Amino acid sequence: MTRGRKAGTGALIAVLAVAVVSAVLIGWNQFGRDEPASASPERSGQTATLPAEEPSDTPTPTATPTPTVTPTPTPTTTPTPEALMVAGASGDQVRELQARLKQLQWYEPKINGEFDDVTAAAVAGFQGKRELPATGAVDQATWDTLVGMTKTPTEDELNNVLTAGPTILGPGDTGDQVRELQARLVQIGWFSGEVTDTYGDTTTASIKGFQDKRGFPATGEVDQRTWDKIVEMTRTPTDDELHNREPENNGGDTDGLDPRCLTGRVLCIDKSTNSLRWVIDGEVRMTLDVRFGTDELPTREGAFQVNSKSRDHVSSLYDTPMPFAMFFSGGQAVHYSPDFAANGYNGGSHGCVNVRDRDAIKSLFDQVNVGDTVIVYWS
Q1: Which residue has the higher pLDDT, 5 or 323?
Q2: Which Gene Ontology CC terms are recorded (predicted)?
Q3: What is the pTM of this model?
Q4: 83-159: CATH number
């Protein structure tokens, strides 16, 4: 019996041993082998880990930037301004053009409404003076500039009709204004004899001649047009001129002389009084009426010397005569001007000092030496 129980116990132990070995083998097979290729993290209950990427020895190529090409700008040409009036045109607008040019003394003939060669030359001259393209044709810029410098022409102006205005001085009038009128007429050679305060026959004849010379109605009476023209051509008379007195010396007084004019030989030129005084050692030897350059071409101010003289000079720049020229600053000179003699202060030079008394400037030319001082100033 005892032997029988021992045998049963041994058999049981053997069976248990076999079972343990089998379980171990089964577990090894389940957990120790590689996962089949078809297995997925979801089905296996595990999170998939991707193998690390092997570094590459070949650098990743970078894209070559495409160069930016700046297009060459197409050159542009300045368009030619559109012409409003050209040679060959005619009509009321041309008539107005001529009348406005006439106001500025760029057009001299009678107004005819025909854009002829004379009109084209006047337009080109006006343009060149104002630094506009001197085409001789009227574009908008030329027209605007011209209109800005002139007034609207009257019907009489457009049709070459001059009518006398109301009389402001006439025969029988007396007083200081008559005296001034006569003194101004003396300056431009239209009155001779003593200056008085009475408007008599001599004054009437002088005014008629002055008016007729300028195409004004020759009434012998002074209207506003006549007076304005006389004033444009003359300067304010001195008290000596108004009362027929000789100056204290032959040359004039020293009032207003620049201190630089009081020593040596000096052409002392005063812009305030439109006068030139020839001064030697502080004594005024001669006084002349002068006019100067325009705002666009002014006469230079300062201290200079006469650097050259030319008795019969002709301007190479403007092709105009400059008799008895005494140059003191580049192309600027003191010289006789027939335009000043004819038109007085109604105009200006290209920068020179104009003298209208030919006999006086001739005498002065012979007295002045190269190297003499020139002073141009405002008193």
Answers
A1: 323
A2: extracellular region
A3: 0.42
A4: 1.10.101.10
